[in-house]
Design brief:
Layout lengths: L8 H12 L3 H15 L10 H8 L3 H9 L17 H18 L9 H5 L4 H18 L24 H16 L17 H10 L5 H4 L4
Helix pairs in contact: 4-5
GO biological process, one term: actin filament organization
Family: Belongs to the calponin family.
Protein name: Transgelin
Amino acid sequence: MANRGPSYGLSREVQEKIEQKYDTELESRLVDWIIIQCGENTEHPPPGRQHFQKWLMDGTLLCKLINSLHPKGKEPIPKITESKMAFKQMEQISQFLKAAEIYGIRTTDIFQTVDLWEGKDMAAVQRTLMALGSEAVTRDDGCYRGDPAWFHRKAQKNRRGFSEEQLRQGQNVIGLQMGSNKGASQSGMTGYGIRNEWADLTQERLNEPNNPIFILGLV
């Protein structure tokens, strides 16, 4: 883990709230998946947030993980190297994040490099890995390894296809509906299209034979 000074005051309270979001049970599931997905020779880390962070912080496993979700020969990260140099580790984390976004992970579900490398928000790292697993299970393209029940399958869009003839008929129906109002009058209608009953009643009284206004021929 990168060396950081102690947190004080408000920053410490914020950090504690972030750490409370970390899920130890989810950690175990993610570790099992990454080991199966990347290969049985992958080392199993001791349990705990700090160990999980140290296990992933050089970016090597993350790059192997995203590569394993693609067919052979189409891996997004062609060169993966184990390095003790900080800039190289952060570069590989950034490569993973970029490949994950291209794979289909929403920007809002992707953690920042410092969230992992400095261990600032390991809950965000878990969220990204969960979204990645969910996308892989949903694709069902043969690249996912592990128990499909570990991740929820995303809802598929129900797209309906219409032929040109069907679209043309729909336009004709809309045209007929629009033409059905020809000759309609807005007389006696309010601003919301509701007939004003008071106006009707007033008109009827004006038309009565005994009405002085009617006798004078003013209506």
